[in-house]
Design goal:
Distance between the termini: 35 Å
Radius of gyration: 21 Å
Largest sheet: 2 strands, antiparallel
Strand content: under 5%
Helix content: over 70%
Number of domains: 1
CATH architecture: Orthogonal Bundle
Strand order of the largest sheet: 1-2
CATH class: Mainly Alpha
Shape: globular
Order of helices and strands: HHEEHHHHH
Number of helices: 7
């Protein structure tokens, strides 16, 4: 759950302003570092393709769960931690322009999605190393690592989304309670109504996310595993590459723990 479906004018100004500020600084740092160490111009088409696929996935809902795929983890694995935030910003900006969330929450959405993508990339890379001795077949190991990384990354992003809602809920509840209470209500009564509305809305949101979230994570993990296995067979150099030629070469090299029959064929 890496997209906050909240229109403009709902979140407190301080919250979405901080989100924009941190997102802008983050992307500026990414661009500065990437320009010095990687040829970003050659990577722009790949970033655009990944962002376009994410936009399409997020625009299609899976009924009756009211859930959409993110393709964030596999995008993070392909692009790496340097380029992933750029794809996140492009995706969230486009979705906001077509009404899939407000413009003011682009910053928060970019942060949450970027963290999800980077966490998925790091977990996938780490799990493939940890599971190297347990699962000897590289494609099976890729599928299992991708599924676990996806579930954990989505759980982290969902927790961050809940945190954003929790930060915004007191202000929203106070505003709603004050409107309902009227001018003649005492300050103590307004505060009590605010606290009650706060607990009700936040607890309901957490309950819904806790129940429906795992179903969406399972669907996302299945799609990600299948896609990663396909890429492992077709273009193994795209998995785990952080933009450097050395990283790509390491991925295309045969796994020393596999026999010659199990080693994947490097295409291209």
């Amino acid at each position: 759950m890496s997209h906050i479906h909240i229109p403009d004018g709902v979140l407190p100004v301080w919250l979405w302003t901080c989100g924009w500020a941190v997102a802008i600084i983050w992307v500026m740092v990414v661009c500065t570092v990437g320009r010095k160490h990687w040829d970003l111009r050659r990577k722009v088409p790949l970033v655009g393709i990944c962002a376009a696929l994410m936009v399409i996935a997020m625009a299609l809902e899976i009924a009756p769960l009211d859930y959409h795929l993110n393709l964030s983890v596999i995008t993070g694995i392909i692009l790496g931690p340097i380029l992933a935030p750029l794809a996140a910003l492009i995706t969230e900006t486009f979705l906001a322009l077509v009404g899939h969330g407000g413009v003011t929450v682009i910053g928060l959405n970019t942060l949450v999605l970027s963290i999800e993508m980077i966490a998925g990339w790091a977990l996938f890379a780490g799990l493939r190393i940890v599971l190297r001795r347990v699962i000897r077949n590289i494609r099976t190991r890729t599928a299992v690592s991708g599924a676990i990384a996806t579930v954990l990354a989505l759980a982290l992003a969902t927790s961050l989304t809940v945190g954003v809602v929790a930060l915004a809920t007191p202000a929203l509840s106070a505003r709603r309670a004050e409107a309902q209470a009227g001018a003649s209500t005492t300050a103590q009564a307004r505060q009590a109504a605010s606290d009650s509305a706060d607990q009700l809305s936040l607890s309901t949101f957490i309950a819904v996310v806790a129940v429906l979230g795992p179903f969406g994570w399972a669907i996302e993990a299945s799609v990600t595993s299948v896609a990663l296995v396909y890429l492992q067979r077709l273009r193994p150099g795209t998995l785990g590459s952080n933009g450097s030629k050395k990283g790509a070469a390491d991925e295309t090299a045969p796994d020393p723990l596999l026999s010659s029959e199990e080693a994947p064929d490097a295409v291209g």
